[in-house]
Amino acid sequence: MFVSIDKDKCVGCNACIRACPIKEANEAHLAEDGMHSIVNINKDKCISCGECVKKCEHGARVYEDDTDRFFGALKGRVNITVIVAPAFRLTEPDADAMLAFLRDELNVKLIYDVSFGADICTYMHLKAVKEKVVRKIVSQPCAATTEYILKHRHDMIQSLSPVHSPISCTAVYLRKYMNITNDIACISPCIAKKFEFNETGLVQYNVTFKRFAEYIRKHYPHFDKEATFRFDNPDCYCGKIYPKPGGLKECLLHAEPSLTVRNCEGVSHVYDALDYYYYNAKENERPAVFDILSCANGCISGPGTNFEEADMFRYLSAADRLSAESFEAREGQTAKSFNKTIDKQFDLFDKKLKFEDFIRDYEPKKIEEKQITEQDVKDAYTALLKTTKAEQNFNCGACGYNSCEEMANAIAMGRNVPQNCHQFNVRQAGVAVQQAVAASDAAKAQNNMIVGVIDDIVGDINLIRNDTNSIGERCEVNKTSMATVEQKLEMLRGKCAEIDGAIQGIIHVNDLYNKMAGAIRTITEQTHILSLNASVEAARAGAAGKTFQVVAGEIRSLAANTKATTKTVEENDEIVKGETAKVLKIAEDIERMVNELAQVMEEVQENLNKTNSIGENIETVAEEITTSTDELRRMTNQ
Asked: What is the band of 599 on the pLDDT scale with cuts at 50, 70, 90?
């Protein structure tokens, strides 16, 4: 395949389909990202006219030629004969210097001007028409149009001129009349010439102008730009104007003014004109020779050239000057013999060249094509969302095809996808907009819900803040109250200490009282003994001792009372001891409880401090949440 695609650069703009005369040679499919289409090339259907290469602004369409292989062979000392298409001198300012470098520095021994082969081509066309070898023919110097017929219009092959192209005529001359057996390289403006070279076997290298000049400038920048150059072929004349639009026509009419010749150039016209010529034009409407070129400005604008649209008039002006010089030179070499004007070059051709040597046979190329039904096309329209006649004839051309029908056929054939249709994408975008609006409404409702939730959160946060403030305030009050409680506890602890001291005093007094009771007991016992002694003595004294006996009785009575009192004191002492012990136990319990209460109050105080700290943290977080929710509200409103 001579035209290929760089998928990384293809953006799916469809400029290639739009420019291509063979729409079915393009096969679009969605890229992996699903965001755009990639247009591949069907190599079996492509005619390598190069229009897609010219029109692709993204560098996604590129072509292959033999430039690197050619220079590699020269570096390897391979003997190669070079033939040069005449458009090279018209489009490349350093053409002669580069050709001189090719001969002097790279040892190319033989370099021929294809203009000489073009003169042979003109002569052979005239011979074919005059001798009625053919009736009405379509010229074939343009390899792209020839490939179009061989691949896509088999029934037109019978109308193709049997005469070789100027390049092939040059190669035939070199091989059959100059006995050149080594490889031939052609410096040409055309990508499609490779088809011709492969099919005829006459030329082994297709080296395009553009790549040839780029290679010389890159690898041999020192080449002498002032060098002069002359071709090795015999003199040539009108063949030099073949690259311009209608070049063959001018050459034929100059030699045979009565001949009917029509010309047509450019992919936007020539392929439709070919179809009309064969399928619609009446026999008497067809010219003797239909001169066609795929490139709109002739070979000077070929895809393998450095043609610039801005310089078109400069090229054409140069071609016109060359045309005038060529015709003048041809007139200068004519002669008269027996009242007849003889063209010396054509006379030489007539004597030296054999017509059959310059005749080409054509073999049609079989291309498999998927067969589709009317239902397939209807399904394609359905896939395109085109249900009405108006929609099916929208024909905007954005897909690259001339009509919606062509696009539907391409989809039915599997060569394209609905996503490559502008109207489909607009409708899909409309659906997407509706979905987006619905999604927006849903999002708006969700936003409103979010705003409501935010408001609730803010309200709750405010409540939390208020409660936190209240907690803080109560904590302060509790803190003050706890301080008072602690103060009171200290006082209670002091009172408990006083109770303890008093109890200790009671115990001490009770001890003293016990000592006194003991002394009284001792006195009682001694008094009792004394009363007993007194009673004994009173009994011994008889009547005289009665008084003493009375005293003894009183003493005994006193001792008894004292003993009873002492017993009561002892009993009360036991009661006092018991009650004192109870008071002491109570005092100890109070003290223990006060201590426990103090410990609890310390823990409460610590918890209050922590609560206060937590409350401050909650308030800080609440403020941060409020700030965030305010920002969220602003964003959701936006």
From this structure: confident
Please return the burial class of 599, using the count of CB atoms within 10 Å of its CB with bins 0-12, 13-18 and 19+. Answer: exposed
Q: How far apart are the first and last CA of the chain?
A: 56
Residues 6+ apart with CB under 8 A from 119: 236, 237, 238, 239, 251, 345, 349
Task: Please tell me the least confidently modeled range out of 200-204, 247-251, 363-367, 537-541.
Answer: 537-541
- Please, are residues 87 and 220 in contact by the beta-carbon 8 Å criterion? no
| φ, ψ at 334 (rounded to 5°) | -85, 160
Which positions ≥6 away from 262 have C-beta within 8 Å?
249, 287, 289, 290, 291
90 and 236 co-located in one domain: yes
**Residue 484 CB neighbour total at 10 angstroms:** 9
Q: What is the pLDDT of residue 134?
A: 87
Q: How far is 493 from 485, CA to CA, in rounded Å?
A: 12
Spatial distance between the Cα atoms of 38 and 597, rounded to a whole number of angstroms: 87
**Same domain assignment for residues 336 and 434:** no
Instruction: Give the pLDDT confidence score for residue 94 in this predicted structure.
Output: 96
Q: Which of 39, 21, 20, 44 is nearest to 29 (CA)?
A: 39
Residue 438 and residue 330 share a domain: no
- Average pLDDT of span 29-47: 90
Kindly report the number of other CB atoms within 10 A of residue 175's CB atom.
17
pLDDT at residue number 225: 94
With H, G, I as helix, E, B as strand and everything else as coil, classify residue 335: strand
> Count H helices, E strands: the chain?
19, 13
pLDDT at res. 388? 94
Amino acid at 182: N
Domain boundary among 358, 375, 401: 358
d(C-alpha 531, C-alpha 554), whole Å: 8
According to DSSP, residue 304 is labeled: T
Distances (CA, A) of 201 to 74, 172, 204, 451: 20, 10, 7, 80
Alpha carbon distance 497, 508 (integer Å): 16
Q: How many independent structural domains does the chain possess?
A: 2
Is the distance from CB of 354 to CB of 175 less than 8 angstroms?
no
What is the chain's length? 638
Tokens read off for 455: 């408001």
pLDDT tens by residue, 137-185? 999 899 999 999 999 999 999 999 999 999 999 999 999 999 999 999 9
| Residues 259-278, mean pLDDT to the nearest whole number | 94
Q: pTM (2 decimals)?
A: 0.69
What is the domain extent for residue 117?
65-134+154-242+298-358
Would strands 111-113 and 137-138 be described as parallel, antiparallel, or unpaired? unpaired
**Which segments of 245-311 does DSSP mark as H helices, in order?**
247-255, 270-279
Determine the Cα–Cα distance for residues 607 and 601; give it in Å rounded to an integer.
10
Residue 515 has pLDDT above 90, yes or no: no
Do the domain assignments include residue 170? yes
Angle of the 193-200 helix axis to the 143-152 helix axis, nearest 10: 70
629 CB-near residues (< 8 Å, 6+ apart): 454, 457, 458, 461
pLDDT score at 627? 82
Q: At residue 134, what is the residue type? A: V
CA separation for the pair 391, 427 (Å, rounded): 11
